[in-house]
Amino acid sequence: MRKLISVILLGLSISLPIAAVADDHSTLRVVQVQADDVGAYIAQLSKGKSLISEVDSKFTLRAIQATFAGEAAGNVIVVVEYPGSFGEFAMAWDKLMADPAVGAWLGGLSELRRIASDSLYTEFPL
Known about the structure:
This protein has helices at 2-22, 38-55, 86-97, 100-109; strands at 27-34, 60-65, 76-82, 114-122. With 126 residues, the protein is α+β, with helices and mostly antiparallel strands.
């Protein structure tokens, strides 16, 4: 009987972390941006990162510049990552957009950039 209980507990202890990892995925909004003044744009993204984290600390904001990318060289790729499904991302995004400070910040970005593409991605857990 002790062996059976030990095997069951071992099986549970192994399967629970695997189940937790299997459900762990992120949704990413990836925006490719053309900016004449990349430094000013990155400075504004830094301000936005602070605003976003005040509303929902689960969001992660990253900026990457394309350096060897043909016609896209010099563009900035902005990645907004949220740990969860499209639905969870959408609910969190709506909450974010309802914040007046975030809305004003996003509106001000249009003076610094032109959006070349805007896409949503979901991560495959590996």
